[in-house]
Amino acid sequence: MTTHLLAEQRLIVCVGAGGVGKTTTAAALALAAAHAGRRAAVITVDPARRLKDALGLQELSIDPHPVEVGGVSFDALALDAKRTFDDLVRRFAPSRAAAERIYANRIYAEVSNELAGSAEYMAMEKLHELLHTHDYELIVVDTPPSANARDLLAAPNRLANLLASKAVGLLQAPASLLSFGSNALSRATLSTLLKALQRWTGLQLLDDLADFVGAFEGMIDGFRERANEIQGLLRSDHTSFVLVTSTEPSTIAQTIAFHRDLVVDAFPVAGVIANRVFDFPSPEACAAALAAWEEPLRGKLVRNQAELHELTRRDAGSLERLQSETGLRLLAAVPQATEAPASLAALEAFAQELLRDAAS
Questions:
Q1: Burial (CB count within 10 angstroms: exposed 0-12, middle 13-18, buried 19+), residue 156
Q2: DSSP sequence for 75-88
Q3: What is the distance between the alpha carbons of residues 57 and 25, in angstroms, rounded to a whole number?
Q4: In this structure, are residues 71 and 56 in contact, taking their beta carbons and an 8 Å threshold?
Q5: Of 324, 227, 327, the residue nearest 269 (C-alpha)
Q6: Phi first, then psi: what are they for 42, rounded to 5°?
Q7: Between residues 347 and 112, the one the model is more confident about
């Protein structure tokens, strides 16, 4: 059932709990799309950057890196929030001098690396750039675990709103902060506190803040316009969210809850890809094959087969619960593998499983 995704969509966003194989799934989807004849790329915004390990790469950067496997190729890249932020400033600044002024600001150096939400905003900005300046037919996004993915999806509006807020506006005129004191004593106390902060940090803190916010003043409309474009992109008919899950009961519960959040926010969820699914027949179905073995090995094989079949029944029940409570299609059920897909050969096998489910 992944045919529609691989053949027609421009953006697939893989979301889900941690430890479910989301990174590998994202890479395998890009590889499967390449096998289907599309120019594809996968980008990871997961700080762990596990994608390079699955692809057998020593390094993974914001620049597209071609990966060749199984006679086809796709591009892989990882977010660099600082560099993306710098590029965004360069694009929206009214002049080169204005951009250089921002780069030199000590507050900007912290904001572009550490401000809560800035990395998530830059991930969405990079995604926008890839879709509009490269000739990719499909981009697959590997997101952080679901709790952080919520921040990622909400990020496009946050930075623009922050820069346009009244609180930040006050920083353009630091002296105006003193007017908020209700009397002379409170104003004097606030003034003393601000001066102490400057002495302790060794920085002209308020001057740096005012300079930083003032430099961004003429760029806020550009930030807001881009944020609106990204929000529209995430809800486009050409975008699909895929919930990646394992069959562990606790993970199924998290997946159901996350699906509820996505529906509330009107994100287009295409279905579920379940990883590490047990699919073994019962001992009765294998009786003829098991009978060929002599005791005591045959007894051990029967018991092992019974345990594996019980896990198969558990997994089937988990997926039935997931589909019942979400109404989502099961796009693919990737069987439990004896080896973790941490090599290109294993990634190719994973992609073929996705293509097999698409064909069926």
A1: buried
A2: EEEE--HHHHHHHH
A3: 17
A4: no
A5: 327
A6: -125, 135
A7: 347
**Do the Cβ atoms of 138 and 74 come closer than 8 Å?**
no
Domains and CATH numbers, the chain: 3-82+120-157+237-281+314-359 (3.40.50.300)
Give me the helices (H) in the chain, please. 3-8, 22-35, 51-54, 81-92, 96-104, 106-114, 118-133, 146-164, 166-170, 184-201, 205-216, 220-234, 249-264, 287-291, 297-326, 344-359
Provide the whole-model pTM: 0.77
Give the contacts of 58 (CB within 8 A, at least 6 positions apart). 52
How does pLDDT run across 317-355, given as a tens digit for each residue? Answer: 999 999 999 999 999 999 887 556 677 888 898 898 888
Percent of the chain predicted with pLDDT > 90: 27
pLDDT digits (tens, 9 = 90+) for 135-191: 899 999 888 776 666 666 766 666 555 555 544 444 444 444 444 445 555 555 555
